[in-house]
Amino acid sequence: MKKWLISGIALLVVGLLIFGCEKAPEGTGVYGKVIDKETRKPIEGATITLTSLRQVTEASPAVWAVTATTESSGNYSIKDLEPGNYGVTVTSSGYFAYSLSELVVKEGKMKKLNIKLEESFVGG
Question: In whole angstroms, what is the distance from residue 66 CA to residue 69 CA?
Answer without folding.
Answer: 11
